[in-house]
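name: query_chain
kind: protein
chains: 1
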Amino acid sequence: MSIWGSLIGGMVGFSLGGPFGMLLGSLIGRKISRARSSASGFNSFAQPQQIFALSLIVLSAKLSKVDGHVSKEELIAVKDKLKIPENEIEQVGKIFNKAKEESAGYEPYAQQISQIYKNNPNVLEEVINILFYIAEADGNVSQSEIDMIQNIAQIFGLNQSQFNSIQESRKSSDKLNPYIVLGSNPKDDLTSIRKKYIQLSKENHPDLLISKGVPSEVIDESKKKMRAINLAWEQIQKLKSN
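structure:
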């Protein structure tokens, strides 16, 4: 069963606060939050995959208009790249359009997501990874889109090296800088670089991300990132052996 089909009705029973609670509440025409002052905005019974999916839709809506226009390619990307079935696009579209049209910026949502996943920074990194994936839809990631994604990463508490690693891993294999991908320096010895490689491999393993709430519908992007990490390590080993 697709995760996208239960986003509105499936979240109604939860103690949903913050901007996400207000957004969904406005869609169903009544308040659904009994804990609007809650830091995380979701109780312990909320499904991690539903939260992640909702986060992607709202941030994708905000991202789609940051460069001043919403292109047809970006709208198609939200549907196709996030693997939203035709029979569920109407419900998802309601959330997307509401988030796109409201006056609130993306920052409150990013802050709430940061609180939800504060103990799982690898999941926050995957949100950034998929936002790049959405931004690439029209073949050109604008500077305004990069700036927004970078600001979200900062709200998430990710450092510059983590952001650079995610951005670099989006490049084709013949263009990526392996040291940036692994957050290393060419002057570092192979042992220290290997430690970073092992750490990144563990943190970005698709099975771990799924267990933390990343929906299987978007796990292909996690697998691509994992391939970039493995490729970077292979390239560095070759460079260090010369």
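note: The chain has a mean pLDDT of 82.
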